[in-house]
Amino acid sequence: EVQLVESGGGLVQTGGSLRLSCTASGFRFDDYAIGWFRQVPGKEREGVSCISSRADTTYYKDSVKGRFTISNDAAKRTVYLQMNDLKLEDTAIYYCAASILPQCSFSLIPYDYWGQGTQVTVSS
Fold first, then answer.
1. Which of 15, 74, 104, 117 is 20 to 30 A from 97, comparing alpha carbons?
2. For residues 63 and 105, what is the distance between their CA atoms, to the nearest angstrom?
3. Are 43 and 92 in contact (CB under 8 A)?
4. pLDDT band at 104 (very low <50, low <70, confident <90, very high)
5. What pLDDT is stored for residue 103 in this prediction?
């Protein structure tokens, strides 16, 4: 069974940090690019960061560049999103997703598998 399980969300004050984890099972982890997306009620899901299947390329949404860092641990089949200097506008449900395409993108279309999401709430 294919599974992507996110964890690490929570409540944090502005300027604080969280590290999200996305642990995969049921498919060849090394063959898939992994993306992190977020969504707030009433808005479309948007790409935040992604890492290619070989972990040699990463992308970030402009508003999180310099604050968020994506990384992976292939041995643990886990992708991390380190989020520093969090802002109110980072509040959302964060999802990870897996795409068979080697290079990642912020389009939702290539992503075959999705996690259930983890809530991140940033308060003032």
1. 15
2. 16
3. no
4. confident
5. 87
